[in-house]
Write a structure and sequence with these properties.
Oligomer: single chain
Structural class: mainly alpha
Helix content: over 70%
Number of strands: 0
Radius of gyration: 23 Å
Number of helices: 5
Order of helices and strands: HHHHH
């Protein structure tokens, strides 16, 4: 039997089949959901700094009723942000895994769309609507959805 670059000719078939079958498994769904939640938190930490928001609010005279300016405001914003991020992470995981879960429940093989594709399509559609509306408002027309 011949080996190409140290691989058996049919060994990659087993790897491809494993990945194909793993997408219909519960383990795949759990790992996928955990990765989505992790990267939701990771992105939020990179993009949103509660200390900076608190300082900007203090500098511009803004405040949160019942919360002192400065560190207490930053702590409050951080606490609220964590709650929102948990909810957002679980929501993203649910939307993204919905086609996989439906495939497992109804024994559908080879779903032609993924939850990630749904999220991308909705994001692009929303951005397109915003751009169309801004162009229409610049020309003094009514909004697109009104």
């Amino acid at each position: 039997q011949r080996y190409y670059c140290g691989w058996e000719p049919n060994s990659t078939n087993r790897v491809v089949l494993w990945f194909k079958n793993a997408q219909q498994g519960v383990g795949y769904a759990i790992i996928y959901a955990l990765l989505i939640i992790f990267f939701t938190f990771f992105y939020t930490v990179i993009q949103f700094n509660p200390i900076e928001v608190s300082n900007n609010m203090k500098r511009n005279g803004g405040f949160i009723p019942g919360i002192r300016p400065g560190k207490p405001t930053a702590d409050y914003i951080s606490k609220v942000l964590n709650r929102i991020t948990w909810f957002g992470g679980f929501f993203l995981a649910a939307i993204t895994l919905l086609p996989n879960i439906l495939g497992m429940i109804f024994k559908i093989q080879g779903i032609w769309f993924s939850g990630t594709a749904i999220l991308i399509l909705v994001g692009v559609a929303m951005d397109t609507i915003k751009q169309i509306e801004s162009h229409m408002l610049m020309r003094h027309y009514k909004g697109f959805l009104e």
